Amino acid sequence: MTPAAPAAAPTALAGCATAPVLRERGQREVFCGLTGIIWLHRKVQDAFFLVVGSRTCAHLLQSAAGVMVFAEPRFGTAIIEERDLAGMADCNEELDRVVDRLLARRPDIKLLFLVGSCPSEVIKLDLSRAAARLSVKHAGATKILNYSGSGIETTFTEGEDACLAALVPELPADRSGRPSLMIVGTLPDVVEDQFLRLFAEIGITTVHSLPARRSDAMPPVGPDTLFLLAQPFLGETARVLEDRGATRLDALFPFGAEGTTSWLHAAAQAFGIDEMHFRSVIAPGRERAKRAIAHSRTRLEGKRITFLPDSQLEVPLARFLSNELGMLPVEVGSPYLHRRHLAQELALLPAGTLISEGQDVDLQLDRVRAARPDLTVCGLGLANPLEAEGLTTKWAIELVFSPIHGFDQAGDLAELFARPLRRRDVLRV
Amino acid sequence: MQLTVWTYEGPPHVGAMRIATAMEGVHYVLHAPQGDTYADLLFTMIERRNKRPPVTYTTFQARDLGTDTAQLFQKAARDAYNRFAPQAMLVGASCTAELIQDDPAGLIEAMGLPCPVVALELPSYQRKENWGAAETFYQLVRKLCTGTTPAPKGDRTQPLVNILGPTALGFRHRDDVIEITRLLTTLGIAVNVTAPLGATPADLARLGDADFNICLYPEIADTACRWLERTFGQKTVRTVPIGHAATRDFITEVATLAGIDATAALNTSNLPWWSRSVDSTYLTGKRVFIFGDATHAVAAARVARDELGFEVVGLGCYNREFARDVRDAAKLYGIEPLITDDYLEVEDAIQALQPELVLGTQMERHIAKRLRIPCAVISAPVHVQDFPARYSPQMGFEGANVLFDTWVHPLVMGLEEHLLTMFRDDFEFSDSAGASHLGHGSAPAHNVPANDLQPEPIAAVATLAESAAEPAGWSAEAEKELMKIPFFVRGKARRNTERYATEQGIAAITLATLYDAKAHYAR
């Protein structure tokens, strides 16, 4: 095999690097940042997420979670009621009471996030003060932090960004004097372990993950920290890590054989790893990824795909599908486009792809109906209506909940897009 | 402030959405921040609707606050009117918009849209979904019927009725309407309007033409029915036809109001004979716990005791607005009613009572699953399972048949129970094998973990169950990796890897083998 030169810095004017962006403003068919709680609470296993919000927030979490299988999950909602709105002092007391009750019930909770919502933001309930106050009260037993997952401030995956950014000031200072690597972004454990193994084989010895699986194992940070974003939606987290002296390694995001190679390679280069050694270590995984992807290629090659804005994964995924599977992106919509973090990704998108940011859902659906792509990646509220119009769809949310990063998930990732098309072809009803 | 894990009801604007989505020609402009659009998926995913709910969300953001949210609302309303050309519009605020007090009612009035507009006041911090649905339906009826004159009866001889209450996202509303319409047809009664499900604003305007109303779902239609009584003097049929006897009572009540003889229509369900037949003997005195919305819970209790011979040991509802009905019913069974929307309280009650069958909502289904008690679902909140492809009403005589089947199915059948006793000592029937009718995972060894902090038991059990038949050859590292794969596909991963190893002549399965096999079998 011939390991391709790991994605080098693209030339300045390639692909969509400087393409104009269609910015729209109107009805957005996306989740708010509270939704991130669904995967965050599974990752940090001694953390509890308490939304301070309304019945709508509780209903959203329940509906987004889809199932109610956990008797008592590690998230809940302190529902603001009429009498809380009467006076702010009362509201703070009420919150203290709810937190006391919760922590008494769940002594296993070591980290509690007070999560701001639209109503709590609008009534200006100061959750950072509440967190400070309650931290003193529960000192030694539970650390209490806050962030906002409100829809007026955050879109879907930005909730995770806000959560991780809230963790950063709490991270211990790294005084080891040795460079370390930090993987930033919530990954399924099995994927995280694959990456940790690869980095160990590559020869990078100190590798941490943010978030860690337990609240007392959060990674240290400092000027010797180099970090790789595992997710494209972590702009604020990256910024506050940089404030603490850490350096972001620029790379493609680790989707597909090429993205994963680029991502790993950025770290290898930064740690001065020998090029030949790097290539020989990643060769088996890279080959496996290519073999696994090949299964879906016939199904996807030449097919036109539109992404409606959802998780900010749209640009890297469109790059993967166009570069490695021969799909043709029609429109790639994203709720927010972080141009600096996505620079390499955008450069690899085929020129002429419509890049859009924000949403006016009715206008965007008009474009989908006019373009009639072979596959439309969209939210759950739109999928069945589009299917009923004869447009094949893929639920965007599955891309957030499934393991899709790295070499050994590349085939699964391709299959997620191929399956709806295969189903369309096999059905005779 | 109330600490909530799961909720039985959504906020009141979701109730309004259920009305708007049920109807044709209505559009709802909801002043709401980004994220509130999650409610669309309730309709498109849970109910599998093939159209988006007719709702426009203004989607205001933090930076809009204090500047132009009112203008944003007016723009959204104008765009929605132009695009969807509705016959009537609903406007309102979600919980957040209620706080910023933009006054959608005043704003929409100022716009002078050329269609009837109902401005909804749904207090999000006091009320819930069912109340919101009832209020929305009532306000629509009031708006569209005010000033209309009922068509003269003339020489019409056939009685004419309205069926009121069925909505989108309702528990079996679709099938109940079919069943009740069929029943009325049998009786020679014509349906004037069924609403809100399938009705247009123009249909609502002629509600007054009917001789009387059928209040099929009091949670939704009671307020509207009372107003119609006052306004048009229409009487209301209040018996909810869930169960064999209640259906007979319903027919009698309808026939009396219509002035017809209904004797011929009275007996067409299989429930009485199925219940009297000997296989049902074992149902006698089964202790049943019932929880749901008040209407379904009260109706279920009657069927449980009078038609199946169960003993009702618990009865409750989550909607306080109808608590009185449940309290009255509980007296009949000599038990304390449970009126709460705190699902942990319901769980405690079930745990304390140790019933043999739970009739509840999806919440109780999960509680019962955890406590390993058989359960059937009788009420909203709904789940994708509550929208079966087949015809499955809860109401009318066919509904009674459905109740018999779905409630008895989770229990061990009489003859089966007899055989189990006979073969009690055979290993297949030992306690540890679990009950086949409870499906996989019912064996004690497969206990569903008490909370998500303890996924280990499942993994451990799966290993034990599988390891007996496994050939050697797994490296510890690969074995460990295998355990990270969800248990429900782990067996497949193990088989595929071993088959791959055998085919490739690999003796020791390493991590690489595991992932090579994964790539090999990837589609």
Descriptive report:
The complex is a heterodimer of chains A (429) and B (523). By secondary structure, chain A is an alpha/beta fold. Chain A has helices spanning 37-43, 55-65, 82-86, 88-105, 118-122, 127-137, 158-167, 189-202, 235-243, 256-270, 275-300, 314-325, 343-347, 361-371, 380-388, 397-401, 410-426; strands at 21-25, 47-53, 75-79, 111-116, 143-148, 180-184, 207-210, 225-229, 247-248, 304-307, 328-334, 354-359, 375-378, 393-395. In chain A, the strands form three sheets. Chain A has a six-stranded parallel sheet, with helices on both faces. In chain A, β8, α9 and β9 form a beta-alpha-beta unit. In chain A, α7 packs parallel to α9 (235-243). The longest helix of chain A is centred in the C-terminal third of the chain and has 26 residues, at 275-300. Chain A is globular. The termini of chain A are far apart. By secondary structure, chain B is α/β, with parallel strands linked by helices. Chain B is 45% helix and 12% strand. Chain B contains 21 helices and 14 strands. In chain B, strands 12-11-10-13-14 form a five-stranded parallel sheet, sandwiched between helices. In chain B, strands 3-2-4-5 form a four-stranded parallel sheet, sandwiched between helices. A four-stranded parallel sheet of chain B has the order 7-6-8-9, with helices on both faces. In chain B, α15 links the parallel β13 and β14 (375-377). Chains A and B meet through α2, β3, α3, α4 and α5 of A and β1, α2, α3, α4 and α15 of B. β3 (75-79) of chain A pairs antiparallel with β1 of chain B.
